[in-house]
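In the previous chapter we treated chains in isolation. Here, by contrast, the input contains two separate entities that must be folded as one system, with a combined length of 227 residues.
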Amino acid sequence: GAGVSQSPRYKVAKRGQDVALRCDPISGHVSLFWYQQALGQGPEFLTYFQNEAQLDKSGLPSDRFFAERPEGSVSTLKIQRTQQEDSAVYLCASSLNPNNQPQHFGDGTRLSIL
Amino acid sequence: AQSVSQHNHHVILSEAASLELGCNYSYGGTVNLFWYVQYPGQHLQLLLKYFSGDPLVKGIKGFEAEFIKSKFSFNLRKPSVQWSDTAEYFCAVIGGGYQKVTFGTGTKLQVIP
């Protein structure tokens, strides 16, 4: 399909391990977003890319969280030294250009930290 | 900072009943407003959006929403719900020209056949 693709769909890790979550946006979409959705909550903004530039990372909860989009397409969200409070669904979204909302969402990665 | 408040966390309706889900936002400037829906096991999908113009916005599947600037509200409505409307509904706002979307906490709608 032509939608936003995220992998893996599910990830279980032990506390202290590092994890990497991948997002393939819709081809040609300039803007890419990461959100964290905790159980029973709405998605919360983490970070935003325009092409390869990370223009806003104000939502990243700590310096253990790092995101990159080196070639302006695929993005990776990395969480180092995971903690139990990192357990959530991580959503990726993309949009065609900065002025062309709305965002198209992927299915998310459900991360569980044991 | 912008914020979004959804008043109902869980709504249960019978089929054919009318629906209205409340959404209020806080932001003093120009806003773009959205309603997203998440069906069980599926990803977030756009229902409708408001950027400017007619404050009564019509979306997919018979949904509509009305932007009332004076009340900072963007309530979602549907005259007659169906069992297939069972889902979680999120109100969202973008304000100030920033790309960051702020979501409400969501309303779970359960429609009983």
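Chain A touches chain B through 27 residues (CB under 8 Å). Chain A has a mean pLDDT of 93. Compare these points with the single-chain example from earlier in the chapter.
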